[in-house]
Design brief:
With 390 residues, the protein is α/β, with parallel strands linked by helices. It contains 17 helices and 13 strands.
Length: 390
């Protein structure tokens, strides 16, 4: 899965590290280590990688080793990187002490918020910021001239996006990294059931959560399915999209949706071919892609606005609502009509948001008489990442 190509990332950590330690969390292979190696190498005075088994075993038996090495190097007022900090969460006590004593800023990478919480991440209190690294985003790949079909095939993990055989690379990722990550959590002894659950969760990707149906298909309890979804969220393998409930004119479902962190990984778990433009799945993949861009943008600019969706019991739906400001519907059609924005029109009656966008595959942007803005998807992403949407 290794690939020599490095794609410059939009993640801005240098300025943050000048003033404060940072947690850089993200699923395996999103590019945390290569980002540090390529973009932060001139800043780093010491680096530890806890994927190194020998180092990890020494640290687990003696967390004070970190303090001793920093003492030996007489490091002050500098940046130290510890990769995969969740492998030895007890190190956080030493980190806390070194921040206080020597004004060292730490960059702590990891892939499991679950293990960090259980290991004492709160020990750092407000002494460390938190950034989530996502798969590749629009500004990083726009010059490649990629198509929707291309990213539906490869997903946006750097190694898979750059691979000669993306489907094979994704298969390797699921077999090696994803399974290893889940097993490392040690949360279930029913691994065959869990892997069946993963497949079912992928098949219901972008849909409202239905623990009961999945529990029936997998042959476990509803509570087990609920717990396993939480594992996916805690390990950053997926995201819950809550229901927007503040509208008053129409009754809404209060059930969250679920999206995997990468559409290529979701397709590999589904064991499905790349959808064609005439298939329903094509629209689902497009919606998932827009979710990935919105989630990454909000995280990278560290916005506190809640990303949600709106769906009524009378079957009106809007794919995404950002805070109480913007409503976004996604469609893959190249010529939109009133059916495509019926959900947005219904949501406008709630009088909550100031912008209503229909993101689609039309060639040119336009604004309808009712105020809805029709945006080609690349035009929309240009505006989003240049800060002109929010």
């Amino acid at each position: 899965m290794e690939h020599d190509i490095y794609i410059q990332r939009t993640l801005a950590l240098k300025e943050k590290l000048e003033s404060k330690s940072q947690f850089l969390l993200g699923p395996r292979m999103t590019g945390k280590t290569s980002y540090i190696r390529n973009e932060l190498k001139d800043m780093v005075s010491l680096g530890w990688n806890l994927l190194d088994g020998r180092l990890r075993m020494r640290v687990l038996s003696d967390p004070g080793l970190l303090h001793e090495e920093i003492e030996a190097r007489d490091l002050h007022d500098c940046i130290v990187v510890i990769d995969e900090i969740q492998k030895a969460p007890l190190l956080l006590e030493e980190v806390h002490l070194l921040i206080e004593e020597r004004n060292i800023r730490f960059l702590l990478t990891g892939s499991s918020a679950r293990k960090l919480r259980s290991g004492g991440v709160n020990l750092l209190g407000g002494r460390a910021g938190h950034v989530t690294m996502h798969p590749l985003v629009y500004p990083e790949i726009q010059e490649t001239g990629y198509s929707l079909e291309r990213i539906f095939e490869s997903g946006l993990l750097p190694a898979c996006f750059c691979a000669d055989n993306p489907s094979e690379a994704l298969g390797d990722y699921v077999d090696l990294y994803l399974n290893e990550e889940i097993q490392a959590e040690g949360v279930t002894r029913k691994l065959p059931h869990f892997f069946r659950f993963l497949e079912m969760a992928a098949l219901s990707n972008t849909e409202m959560l239905n623990f009961t149906n999945i529990a029936s298909d997998v042959g476990v309890t509803r509570q087990a399915v609920s717990d396993w979804y939480q594992v996916l969220i805690d390990t950053l393998i997926g995201y819950e999209l809550p229901s927007f409930k503040k509208g008053k004119k129409r009754k809404t479902y209060g059930i969250s949706k679920f999206y995997f962190f990468d559409l290529g990984v979701a397709r590999a778990l589904q064991n499905a071919p790349v959808p064609t433009v005439t298939q329903t799945e094509y629209g689902n993949f497009f919606e998932h892609y827009m979710f990935m861009e919105l989630r990454a943008y909000l995280d990278y600019v560290q916005s506190k606005l809640v990303l949600s969706y709106w769906r009524t019991t009378s079957d009106f739906e809007v794919d995404f609502v950002i805070g109480e400001r913007i409503a976004i519907e996604t469609k893959t059609t190249k010529k939109t009509d009133a059916r495509d924005y019926r959900g947005l029109k219904a949501f406008m009656e709630e009088g909550i948001c100031s912008k209503y966008l229909l993101v689609c595959c039309e060639e040119r942007p336009r604004k309808l008489e009712n105020g809805i803005e029709v945006m080609p998807w690349k035009y929309f992403l240009d505006l989003l990442w240049s800060g002109k949407i929010l």
